[in-house]
């Protein structure tokens, strides 16, 4: 079976993308598809490298019965060469990723907004960092809808 690889990207890799990564990993595990997918998340920037996700992101995931041990990392040239899909959270991420991918000789990743898979057509997953618990919950719900639809399409 082909090995599908997915990376989820946000600006700092401490709020949105770790939530999306944990949600997708749980969906894949629940569907017994973990042998088919390698899921990771990364940041466009290097601000938070090595940090654990925001405590509110961890709290939101825990509330939904999901644990993660992810530590923030910055996206690498190899990510563009190995991942089949790189899904990001907003237009600024998309611009940055497209710019970075243009500098990679053999980029194989399809780069797109995770929100393009949302059945509710919420294209942008807003950064909840300056918000409250409710904003993290909104991110979780969006990620869940998008990841389910993405998995259905590529499974």
TrEMBL record:
Its EC number is 3.1.3.2, 3.1.3.48. GO terms for molecular function: acid phosphatase activity; non-membrane spanning protein tyrosine phosphatase activity. Its main location: cytoplasm. InterPro entries: LMW_PTPase, Ptyr_pPase, Ptyr_pPase_sf, Tyr_Pase_low_mol_wt_mml, Tyr_phospatase_low_mol_wt. It is found in: Cytoplasm. It catalyses: a phosphate monoester + H2O = an alcohol + phosphate; O-phospho-L-tyrosyl-[protein] + H2O = L-tyrosyl-[protein] + phosphate. CDD domains: LMWPTP (cd16343). It comes from the Eukaryota. Residues 9-153 form the Phosphotyrosine protein phosphatase I domain. One of its GO terms (cellular component) is cytoplasm. Coiled coil: none annotated. Transmembrane segments: none annotated. The active site is at residues 16, 127. Keywords: Cytoplasm, Hydrolase, Protein phosphatase. Acts on tyrosine phosphorylated proteins, low-MW aryl phosphates and natural and synthetic acyl phosphates. Belongs to the low molecular weight phosphotyrosine protein phosphatase family. This is Low molecular weight phosphotyrosine protein phosphatase.
């Amino acid at each position: 079976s082909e090995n599908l690889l997915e990376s989820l990207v946000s600006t700092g890799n401490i709020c949105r993308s770790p939530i999306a990564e944990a949600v997708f990993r749980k969906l894949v595990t629940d569907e017994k598809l973990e042998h088919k997918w390698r899921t990771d998340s990364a940041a466009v920037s290097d601000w938070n490298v090595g940090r654990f996700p925001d405590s509110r992101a961890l709290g939101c995931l825990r509330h939904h019965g999901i644990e993660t041990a992810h530590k923030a990392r910055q996206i690498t040239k190899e990510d563009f060469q190995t991942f089949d899909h790189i899904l990001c959270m907003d237009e600024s991420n998309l611009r940055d990723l497209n710019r970075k991918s243009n500098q990679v000789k053999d980029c194989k990743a399809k780069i797109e907004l995770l929100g393009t898979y949302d059945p509710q057509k919420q294209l942008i997953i807003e950064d909840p960092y300056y918000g409250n618990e409710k904003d993290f919950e909104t991110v979780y719900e969006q990620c869940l809808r998008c990841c389910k639809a993405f998995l259905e399409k590529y499974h």
